[in-house]
Amino acid sequence: MKLGVFDSGLGGVLIARALHEKLPDIDKVYLGDTLNLPYGSRSNEAIYQASKRCMDALFSKGCGLIIMACNTASASALRRLQQEYLPEHYPDRRILGVVVPTVEEAIARGYKRLAVIGTDYTINSGVYRDELNKINPDIEIVEKRTPLLVPLIENAGEAYLDQVLDDYLDFTKEGAFDALLLGCTHYIHLKDRIAARYDFDVLAQDDIIPDKLVAYLNKHTDIDQSLGRNGAFEFFVTDLTDGYAAHASALFGHNIEMTLIGDIHG
What angle separates helix 127-135 from helix 99-108, to the nearest 10 degrees? Predict the structure, then answer.
């Protein structure tokens, strides 16, 4: 079996890179749904259907465990996929999200006042507020929709990022925050830029998910033992352009071959 990494676009490549650095021997498959990005402005049902087809594709590639590296899909579709889709179609396989591990890490670090940025869907869903309240309702959280960041990151909009970030993060001047939680996998690309411009910690999921996965595998030895360990890594997208290929390689840190998986959204 293989470890799957799914994202609505290419932001999850940053999670894939971090996972590969932490667990280089485990066989992995990455799938970016570039045909349908961004998910953040889509309806709940559209996100679910797109995510389900991508799960089908990854399971068909031999994945036994999938990391849903997309915060929007984790907020919208993960629970339904776990409770309805897996029991019916793949009862022996697992899908894990990124929201709960991130919330657990924020609490473990002792933060009391958090700022969160994310896509329209993620913020409107209230998933971070809800998950924080389940564990520690005393933590104060202030959320902000930041819909322009993903298109800028996906389309080489580096020249405009500082201006857009400063506008979006202007709300942080209203009070002292312990940390800014980056509630979108794409935003990992911005963590150093933000840390250099603002006086708070930056909570990024590439620093969290690999250790959380190691802990999960240590607890679930049957899944750990089922994963192949030949160091193979395949990269697939649902729409392939020269720009996507170059951008994915830049995010991963060296040249990778992106393969068009075909029309799984017919």
Answer: 50
